[in-house]
Write a structure and sequence with these properties.
4 helices; 52% helix; 5 strands; two-stranded antiparallel sheet; alpha+beta
Length: 126
């Protein structure tokens, strides 16, 4: 089933290894096939991955976009170890994300870690 994507004016989306920027008008299109897709709002850069959870998210994002889990596996485990040492209450979400990764569902892992980004923001704002 094709994925329906609606882009706001000048919004960007990553499809595979390409970044697509919309024109000045809203656009709707369908994507059919198996390729990694991330909307601009869901993309972190190396510069914006400036907290432990965001670094973990960025690592999974790279696994997803490059379709290469083994390349980032050791880095992922380092981030998980550091994060659990600092915030043990994140264990359940990290285990869920790790299970998604092991099953090959990297986008689901990203969604799970996005919930931790919100929780981390709350902790850091205190």
């Amino acid at each position: 089933m094709p994925l329906r994507v609606e882009l706001k004016p000048f919004e960007r989306i990553v499809i595979g290894q390409s970044v697509i920027t919309n024109s000045e008008t809203r656009a709707i299109f369908l994507i059919d096939g198996e390729t990694p897709i991330l909307r601009e709002k869901d993309i972190l850069t190396a510069e914006t991955a400036n907290t432990p959870v965001k670094r973990l998210y960025f690592c999974i994002q790279q696994m997803y976009l490059e379709d290469d889990i083994p390349k980032y596996q050791d880095l992922y485990m380092d981030f998980v170890r550091d994060l659990l040492g600092a915030v043990p209450s994140f264990r359940e979400s990290i285990e869920t994300a790790s299970n998604h990764i092991l099953s090959g569902f990297l986008y689901k892992a990203l969604r799970e870690i996005r919930t931790l980004i919100k929780r981390e923001d709350e902790l850091l704002s205190r």
